[in-house]
Amino acid sequence: MQKGLVIANKENEFMQLKEYIDSVKESDGILMQTLQKAQNIFGYLPIEVQKFISEETGIPLAEIYGVVSFYTQFSVTPKGKHKIGVCLGTACYVKGAQLVIDKLVKELSIKVGDTTEDNLFTLEATRCLGCCGLAPVMMIDDEVYGKVDPKHIPEIIDKYRG
Ligand code: FES
Prior knowledge:
Layout: H1 11-24, H2 31-42, H3 47-57, H4 61-70, E1 82-87, H5 90-94, H6 97-108, E2 121-126, E3 138-140, E4 143-145, H7 153-161
Parallel strand pairs: 1-2
Antiparallel strand pairs: 1-3, 3-4
The chain binds FE2/S2 (inorganic) cluster.
The site of FE2/S2 (inorganic) cluster (FES) has 12 residues, from helix 5.
C-alpha cells in the first residue's frame, strides 16, 4: 500500500487502525468513533489516513472529509506535544489576551493555529474557558494560567521545553 511521505513508517499505526475498523465494521454509525480512534493513533488525520478509512469502511472520502472539516475536535495538521490555548473571550480580551498571544507568537515564532517545528507546541485561540475572574487566561495542556502577564511568557514556556 502506497502512502505519502508525511505518514511514512506508520505501518504499525495502520495495522492498529485496520484491526479497530475490522472490529466495528458491522456496526452502524462508526465514522465518528473511527475518526476519533484514528486521531488517537496518528495524532491527526492527514488525507492518507482519511483515504485509508474510506477504503476500509466503504464510506465515501468526501463524506469523511466533510466530517473532519466540520468538527473542530479533528485536525488535519499535526499537533504539538503541548497545546497552548489562549482565551479570546470578552473578559480576557479586555484584560489584554491579544498581548499574551502576541508574546507567544514572538516567543514560539509561529502563528495562531500552527505547531512549532520541533513539534513541541501548538498555539490556539479559544473561547471562554469559564474562569473569567482570572482574565487573561491561558491553558497549557490541562494547566490553567490566570492573570497572565506577557512578560512571564518566556519563563512559563521554558518549563515545558525541559
Ligand atoms: S473570557 Fe476568558 S475565561 Fe472567560
